[in-house]
């Protein structure tokens, strides 16, 4: 029995939710939410009364049910997909200069330190050059340039746990008025200086590089990103 | 050979620029649409090529016999020194400048911008001074 009709090709008389109600789909359970219970033991041994009955008998541990539902409910299929962290783009490596496309630092050119376990890029301005601190950034929001710096490996203490906000810091930020900012801890400031020191030495070797990192990226008339080489 | 106002002829020995950007020599004329071209030293395989996909250059490899095979074409190309002339030509220089500009990295573009500004700052007042002195 057709419950819906077509007014104009592409437009039906009743909406998706209206049809759901009309068909009574709320009464039909599509998938069984609880997975089928598994029996630990299949057989058990039971004592039987009566002299000539054999004394012991092995019977199934759980008695078979006398009632079954009229219709079988489907078990949801087990997904074969596994969640993995995003693989690092071939054009990005430690020491690459990268353009940030989103966030408060959009347009800024920034140095990649490494990729963290979560898949995010660990990145720094350096802070004195363009105001970008040691920060995490998703590589999807980044344009990789072909400019690379020679950098030693970053301290292993910079991982995802380093960036986790503690409870009291979160509270402070919530309570602080919009104008005032919560001061960064001294240790973080020291970390920033230590990391940036090495990078600034490398930056000083190439002429114009410091100016380049301080300048913001923008498109001018006639420039199209798909036609440009970075 | 000039016919009226046409200075560049489709002829055996004419150096042509293919749409792909490579140079080749016309070895034989097939018909009103195609020619047999060859570019042993420029990386063009000997093949039939339509005129609409190539441009005639003012250069000619003189004395190339019609239908010459690859070894002969190579000999005549090297003897004529046509490719060296091409390298020096203004046409080729413009092409090279265009490709260089297209292949600039983001950092290169930034450096070009800074240097251009520097040049403007140096030239501008100097030019204005020179004009003033002339007037």
Automatic annotation (TrEMBL), chain A:
Gene3D superfamilies: 2.30.30.30. It holds the Pfam family Ribosomal_L6e_N. Residues 3-35 form the Large ribosomal subunit protein uL6 N-terminal domain. SUPFAM superfamilies: Translation proteins SH3-like domain. Keywords: Ribonucleoprotein, Ribosomal protein. GO terms for biological process: cytoplasmic translation; ribosomal large subunit assembly. PROSITE patterns: RIBOSOMAL_L6E. GO terms for molecular function: RNA binding; structural constituent of ribosome. InterPro entries: 60S_ribosomal_eL6, Rib_uL2_dom2, Ribosomal_eL6_CS, Ribosomal_eL6_KOW, Ribosomal_uL6_N, Translation_prot_SH3-like_sf. Coiled coil: none annotated. GO terms for cellular component: cytosolic large ribosomal subunit. Belongs to the eukaryotic ribosomal protein eL6 family. This is 60S ribosomal protein L6. The lineage of its organism: Eukaryota, Fungi, Fungi incertae sedis, Mucoromycota, Mucoromycotina.
UniProtKB/TrEMBL annotation, chain B:
GO terms for cellular component: cytosolic large ribosomal subunit. Keywords: Ribonucleoprotein, Ribosomal protein. The keyword Hydrolase does not apply. One of its GO terms (molecular function) is RNA binding. The keyword Ribosomal protein applies. GO terms for biological process: ribosomal large subunit biogenesis; translation. Residues 46-120 form the Large ribosomal subunit protein eL14 domain. Belongs to the eukaryotic ribosomal protein eL14 family. This is Large ribosomal subunit protein eL14 domain-containing protein. It comes from Hesseltinella vesiculosa.
């Amino acid at each position: 029995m057709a419950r819906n009709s077509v007014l104009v090709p592409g437009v039906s008389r009743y909406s998706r939710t209206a049809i759901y109600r009309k068909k009574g789909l709320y009464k039909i359970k599509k998938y069984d939410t609880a997975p089928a219970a598994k029996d630990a033991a299949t057989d058990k041994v039971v004592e039987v009364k009566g002299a000539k009955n054999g004394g012991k008998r092995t019977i199934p541990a759980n008695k078979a049910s006398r009632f079954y539902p009229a219709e079988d409910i489907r078990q949801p299929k087990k997904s074969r997909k596994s969640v993995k962290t995003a693989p690092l783009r071939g054009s990005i490596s430690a020491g690459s200069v990268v353009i940030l496309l989103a966030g408060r630092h959009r347009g800024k050119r920034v140095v990649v330190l490494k990729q963290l376990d979560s898949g995010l890029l660990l990145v720094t301005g350096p802070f004195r050059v363009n105001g970008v601190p040691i920060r995490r950034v998703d590589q999807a929001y980044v344009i990789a340039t072909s400019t690379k710096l020679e950098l030693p490996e970053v301290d292993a203490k910079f991982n995802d746990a380093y960036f986790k906000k503690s409870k009291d810091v979160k509270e402070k930020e919530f309570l602080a008025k919009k104008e005032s900012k919560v001061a960064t801890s001294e240790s973080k400031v020291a970390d920033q200086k230590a990391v940036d020191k090495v990078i600034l030495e490398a930056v000083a070797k190439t002429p114009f590089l410091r100016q380049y990192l301080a300048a913001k990226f923008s498109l001018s008339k006639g420039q199209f990103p798909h036609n440009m080489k970075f | 050979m000039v016919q009226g106002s046409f200075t560049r002829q489709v002829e055996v020995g004419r150096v042509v620029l293919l749409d792909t950007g490579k140079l080749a020599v016309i070895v034989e004329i097939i018909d009103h649409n195609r020619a047999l071209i060859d570019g042993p030293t420029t990386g063009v395989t000997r093949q039939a090529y339509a005129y609409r996909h190539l441009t005639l250059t003012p250069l000619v490899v003189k004395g190339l016999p019609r239908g010459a095979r690859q070894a002969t074409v190579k000999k005549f190309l090297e003897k004529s020194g046509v490719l060296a002339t091409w390298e020096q030509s203004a046409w080729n220089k413009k092409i090279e400048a265009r490709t260089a500009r297209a292949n600039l990295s983001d950092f290169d573009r930034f450096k070009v911008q800074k240097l251009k500004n520097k040049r403007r700052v140096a030239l501008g007042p100097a030019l204005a001074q020179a004009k003033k002195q002339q007037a």
